[in-house]
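Hi R.,

Quick one: here's the glutaminase sequence you asked about.
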Amino acid sequence: MAVGVLALQGSFNEHLAALRRIGVKGVEIRKAEQLENVSSLIIPGGESTTMAKLAELHNLFPALREFVKMGKPVWGTCAGLIFLADKATGQKTGGQELVGGLDCTVHRNFFGSQIQSFEAELPVPELAATEGGPPSFRAVFIRAPAILEVGPGVEVLASVSIQSNKNVDFNPALQDNQEGSAESDTSKVIVAVKQGNILATAFHPELTIDSRWHSYFMKMLPSNNEITAASSSSSYYADQESYLYNKQPKTDLPIYE
Ligand code: GLN
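And here's the predicted structure, written out as tokens:
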């Protein structure tokens, strides 16, 4: 069965391309009945308020909640993470409808406005243990949310360092270059989690060439576990085995297709 990608708005095409790179068929989901034909679902990044309005218009919320409850793997990236959270703060007046299921509180636009978007190298021990490759992942944060609190059943997969008491006007790339900035001035916020069948990342793995989050998500499918686990050494960078990650300039732009 194919992987569904919610295609109301946002970076669904980039997720479909990322799935193609690891040899997985993805299909666009716009109607509730289309969810019956997919084994798992990706809710992409975009604008969560707009996406929620469109989901409401197409009466998708009941089917999305049902899909999550059935235990099928669901991965939310950025706005998709907001969709899956049980609680969101920093929402527009009147809030927005959420799918829920992920026992956490997210804060929308935690790192500031669009121009404060950034890239950061995140330590990803669990991802590297499962998928191989470098111990860190270069993550693209675009007006990203952060996870402020998680429930006991939630596994934290990645955090980003931020300056304490400063969650606006923050850019880790700049902070990395600040000489003499004391260790005690930084704290960490959670940006990737897993809870049972739900995976959520505040950043956009579909915009980079590193396919490990996509292959990690595929392993959440019980039937695929053995197959993908057996090929895990070749799933890293997928069809681009000759690709030399460490030679890639760290200022590279995201990959679009
Ligand atoms: N800030 C956006 C929102 O709240 C999410 C941004 C993104 O998905 N890149 O919906």
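Residues 171-182, 226-235, 238-253 have pLDDT under 50 and may be disordered.

Cheers,
M.
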